[in-house]
Amino acid sequence: AILIRTLEEGVAAKVIEYMTAEEKEVLLREIAKFRVYKPETLENVLGEFLYELNVKELNLVTPDKEYIRRIFKNMPEDELEKLLEDLWYNKDNPFEFL
């Protein structure tokens, strides 16, 4: 609840879209009883979030073609195929064609 409250409203709404009904209910209850927190508490919550985010970023691996296909699913197939072909043709410098 603390983290959600620190986000811009539109961003918070987007995050909440991905929550289950149970998670939304718990969050709503926590926000409803929201109180003033000590600066140390806010700092600890945000610090923990940033730490977890950093750990996840460090664990990311090079995306494969299937991952790229999923996130670019709205791109025309032939255009995506051409870009993928160019990318995988030169793995050492995949963005050389730009």
UniProtKB/TrEMBL annotation:
Keywords assigned: Bacterial flagellum, Cell membrane, Cell projection, Chemotaxis, Cilium, Flagellar rotation, Flagellum, Membrane
GO process terms (BP): bacterial-type flagellum-dependent cell motility; chemotaxis
Pfam families linked: FliG_N (PF14842)
Family: Belongs to the FliG family.
Source organism phylogeny: Bacteria, Bacillati, Bacillota, Bacilli, Bacillales
GO molecular function: cytoskeletal motor activity
Membrane-topology descriptor: Peripheral membrane protein
Localisation per UniProt entry: Bacterial flagellum basal body; Cell membrane
Protein name in the entry: Flagellar motor switch protein FliG
Keyword Cell membrane: yes
UniProt cross-references to InterPro entries, sorted A to Z: Flg_Motor_Flig, FliG_a-hlx, FliG_N
Top-level taxon of origin: Bacteria
Gene Ontology cellular-component terms listed: bacterial-type flagellum basal body; plasma membrane
Flagellar motor switch protein FliG N-terminal domain span: 1-91
